[in-house]
Each structure stands twice: as structure tokens, then as C-alpha cells.
TrEMBL record:
Record's keyword terms, sorted: Disulfide bond, Glycoprotein, Immunoglobulin domain, Membrane, Repeat
Organism: Leptonychotes weddellii
The keyword Membrane belongs to this UniProt entry's keyword annotation: yes
Main location: membrane
Cell compartments where the protein resides: Membrane
UniProt cross-references to InterPro entries, sorted A to Z: FN3_dom, FN3_sf, Ig-like_dom, Ig-like_dom_sf, Ig-like_fold, Ig_I-set, Ig_sub, Ig_sub2
Protein name: Netrin receptor DCC-like
Domain Fibronectin type-III: 121-162
Domain Ig-like: 21-106
Transmembrane segments: none
Gene3D superfamilies assigned: Immunoglobulins
One GO CC term on file: membrane
Length: 162
């Protein structure tokens, strides 16, 4: 910040010098299984306040029900799918410059347990949230739990498709 003094009027004026964006918090690499919700954190500062955009593998991420910008600059992905895997960049810009930081999202294949330890199917499965990209389901516990259930896999097909 610079101080300018005008002697003829006896007035002090402050002129703000633009400051390029810098990262207070960089996004971190994340591992997530399919259907999990994740959030890349990205916190920036600068003067004037920088605008923040996200990119995935060089393409702009367009906010939607599925890709959400939260807390001003964090990227939340709801119901991760395998195709979400890749490199995400947080890009901050203002009139003084820009800064970028990246992180990788890895979506590993889930381990498949033997059938002797699998629970029976869940009961009364119903959709509670339907979007163009995902469906959130609700159900009652299975009749035979066979241990501590951590996740179910849902397979989708349209009527008439083979």
C-alpha cells in the first residue's frame, strides 16, 4: 500500500497496489471409492480478491449439482465415479496475476470379498435424490448382515437393454 500526500489540500489518500494471488491452502491428492463425496480444498488471497476456477485435466469444471464450489473456492464432487479420476487445478486470478495449484484424484477399484461373507440384498430400496448424473438411494438393512456392512454396489440397466 502506498501513501500519497497532497500538500495543497492537506489530505492524505491511500492508493492500493495490486498483489498477485497466492495460496493459503493448496489442494491435496485424494483417494476415493466410487459413490463417495469428496472435497478439494483451495484457499487463496491477493488484492483485489482473486477469482477462483477449477480445471480437470486442462478442461474447465462447470459448477453443477454434481461439481459444487463451496466455501468460495473449494471443489466438492458428489458421488464420485471412475471417470472423475484425474488432475484437478485450482486457478486463482486477479488484475495483478494468477497462481495455480493441482492435486490428483485417484479412484481405485474396490476389493471384492468372497460370497461367503457377503450380506443378503438390502430391503425396500427407494430413490431419495435423483439428478442427471447420480441417484441417492435409501433402504432397510438386509435380512442377513453377515458382519459389518460398509458399502453396497448398485448396477443400473434400462428396461429393454441387454
Amino acid at each position: 500500500m502506498a501513501l500519497l500526500v497532497s500538500r495543497s489540500q492537506g489530505v492524505c489518500m491511500f492508493k492500493s497496489t495490486p498483489i498477485p494471488p497466492w495460496f493459503l491452502n493448496h489442494p491435496s491428492n485424494l483417494y476415493a471409492y466410487e459413490s463417495m463425496d469428496i472435497e478439494f480444498e483451495c484457499s487463496v488471497s491477493g488484492k483485489p480478491v482473486p477469482t477462483v476456477n477449477w480445471m480437470k485435466n486442462g478442461d474447465v469444471v462447470i459448477p453443477s449439482d454434481y461439481f459444487q464450489i463451496v466455501g468460495g473456492s473449494n471443489l466438492r464432487i458428489l458421488g464420485v465415479v471412475k471417470s472423475d479420476e484425474g488432475f484437478y487445478q485450482c486457478v486463482a486470478e486477479n488484475e495483478a496475476g494468477n497462481a495455480q495449484s493441482s492435486a490428483q484424484l485417484i479412484v481405485p477399484k474396490p476389493a471384492i470379498p468372497s460370497s461367503s461373507v457377503l450380506p443378503s440384498a438390502p430391503r425396500d430400496v427407494v430413490p431419495v435424490l435423483v439428478s442427471s448424473r447420480f441417484v441417492r438411494l435409501s433402504w432397510r438393512p438386509p435380512a442377513e448382515a453377515k458382519g459389518n456392512i460398509q458399502t453396497f454396489t448398485v448396477f443400473f440397466s434400462r428396461e429393454g437393454d441387454n
